[in-house]
Design goal:
alpha/beta; Potassium Channel Kv1.1, Chain A; Rossmann fold; 2 domains; eight-stranded mixed sheet; three-stranded mixed sheet; SDR_fam; oxidoreductase activity, acting on the CH-OH group of donors, NAD or NADP as acceptor; NAD(P)-bd_dom_sf; BTB domain-containing protein
Amino acid sequence: MRSSSSVIKLPKNLRKKIKEKERKCVCFPQHLGTVEIPMVWSEFRLNSQLCDGVIVCEDGVQFRIHRVILSAVSAYFKAHFTNSLNGGFPENTEAKVSVSSDIFKNILDFAYTGCCNIEANNVEHLLKAADQYDVLGVIQLCCRYVLDLSQFVDLSCANMFEIKGKVALITGGASGIGFQYAVELLNNGLKGVTLADINEEFGEIALQDISQKFGDGKAIFVKVDVTNQKQFEDAFKKTVEKFENIDILINNAGILDDRIWETEIDINIKGTVTGTLLAIQNYIHKHKSGPEGVIVNISSVAGVDPAPILPIYCATKYAIIGFTRSFGTEMHYALSNVRVFAICPGFTDTPLMTNFEVKSLKPEYTTSFKKVKHLVVYQQPADIARHAVELIKTAPQGSIWVIDSKEPPYEYSHIPRQKVKELTANSN
């Protein structure tokens, strides 16, 4: 395992190739001609020679720098320094950054030498700073460090997520499984919950039920069409206004009706994508009360196995699994500290499943299902919610869980295509 104090160098195939060429700086003496990077410039910085810019950190520490060097590794500083000259604006020679000097020193080390000191206790802050100031090379180094470390430590589940005192937003939360998620989370000590739903009547009933069971002030209802980004974002804003933070998002809203497949795609896929982006890039990322936030995406067993009766609904649930696995990487966790996973409920006794055979594109699609319909075992929403809440505490980043036939949840693992190729070759 890499020592926490080791210096990680950018791999050759990722390091930007810097050819020897003339770099013109506002104060760069022309008689020096070409210079070799990074050796000469690194010496110049250490001795404060030929510096033409200043970085002011949030703790007041200042670094004298060469603007052309920092601009070479950062689009942000290139825009701040170089573009101001090209555009004919007053020359920018100073930049204030909202990070500590200890963290920014690593960015400067990378700019001048191609390497920096990444440790377990600074990787999160360094990654955020590199992302904020568009230093791609440092982002790559931090992600490699996290991936290497994750071979030995499960970073996202080093400690069980504690629900007590947290705040949740649940789409489709006014009835069915969505409402049961809210009840079970509150049973586990949740501070507050926002029920985001299109149905105001169900929302009022749900608030009354929660108030009777858990007291006033534990829940709010916000009318939301999840295909409308403004309405969705308003739900996040009202959650933070009411409860001061937000830690959990359950993307539960969905419909099952292939007859209106365009709406089905919008709600099931677009709604999940919109909620996840709002949470992971902004609201949970910035307003979580602890070190970690959680997003639960609701897929289905129809996202695991083909569903000939409802091929479009099936496609939307497959999409959610691919989306969750992609955002469920350690790289995304390192950037946001938001853990993402999905659950795939089987047949559940909810209004969604009522007469679902008639919601198929054609009656002919239902023929095969009618032959086995009597074998289906329906689960209760409360059981799904109980398992889901336990998974919120423990499910690894990017994992997919099947909850079916009244049995304990099990993980639906991904098999990389290269492994499938090897298995196929071996079987032959």
